[in-house]
Amino acid sequence: MIRLLRIDDRLVHGQVALTWTPAVGAECLVVANDKVAKDDFLKMTMNLAKPANAKLLIKSIADTVTFLSDERSKPMKILVLVNSVQDAAALAGALPEIRSINFGGIRAREGARAISKAITVTDADVIVIRDLLARGIELEVRQVPTDELRSIETLL
User: Fold this and answer.
1) Contact 5, 88 (CB under 8 A)
2) Which residue in 85, 117, 116 sits closest to 101, CA to CA?
3) pTM (predicted TM-score)
4) If DSSP codes are grouped into helix, strand and coil, which group holds residue 151?
5) pLDDT by residue (tens digit) across 59-104?
6) How far, in Å, CA of 122 to CA of 48, rounded?
7) Dist. CA 151–CA 13, nearest whole Å
8) 143 with 105: CB under 8 angstroms?
9) Beta bridge mates, 8
10) DSSP labels for 52-77?
11) Other C-beta atoms within 10 Å of 111: how many?
12) 43: which of 22, 54, 59, 154 is 20 to 30 A away, CA to CA?
């Protein structure tokens, strides 16, 4: 069962390991990212950052959909991590059980504007965000679980 789908361009790091994993009771972290799934060095660094009491799976977006659609994954408490709005939308489009997406951190990049201290979005991101909102998916902004939940819609 997916406990949280989080967009964070750092993927696995201290905030995820020390606050989000215990807050949602995750026993398995799934990094859904086509690039990381093919890069042994990035896989190694993600494994070093993961919490000791959680399993880490690193899969492509397509393989993540397959894994999360499998009945054998349903009893697991899963935290899914992606690094882009587009990847989150791809998972939400393929997995109807995803009804909420957490925006944790998307750093400055070319063509993006800041909408909060930790989130920047491009015009293409905004189009995808508005589509997700129109489909009734909750899009909340929180860096850590104790932050006040804010809808991304109020920041656009």
Assistant:
1) yes
2) 85
3) 0.96
4) strand
5) 999 999 999 999 999 999 999 999 999 999 999 999 999 999 999 9
6) 31
7) 24
8) yes
9) 105
10) TTSEEEEE-HHHHHHHHHSGGGTTS-
11) 10
12) 22
Q: Rounded to whole angstroms, how far apart are CA atoms 141 and 94?
A: 22
Cα separation, 27 vs 33, in Å, equals 19
Domain boundaries, the chain: 2-155
- Beta-strand (E) ranges in the chain? 2-8, 28-32, 55-59, 78-82, 100-105, 113-114, 120-121, 138-141, 150-151
Architecture of domain 2-155 in CATH? 3-Layer(aba) Sandwich (3.40)
Query: What amino acid is encoded at 152 in this protein?
Result: I
The rounded distance, in Å, linking the Cα atoms of 145 and 23 is 7
What confidence tens digit (pLDDT) does each residue in 14-64 have? 999 999 999 999 999 999 999 999 999 999 999 999 999 999 999 999 999
Active site residues: 13
Taking the C-alpha atoms of residue 78 and residue 3, their distance in angstroms, rounded to an integer, is 5
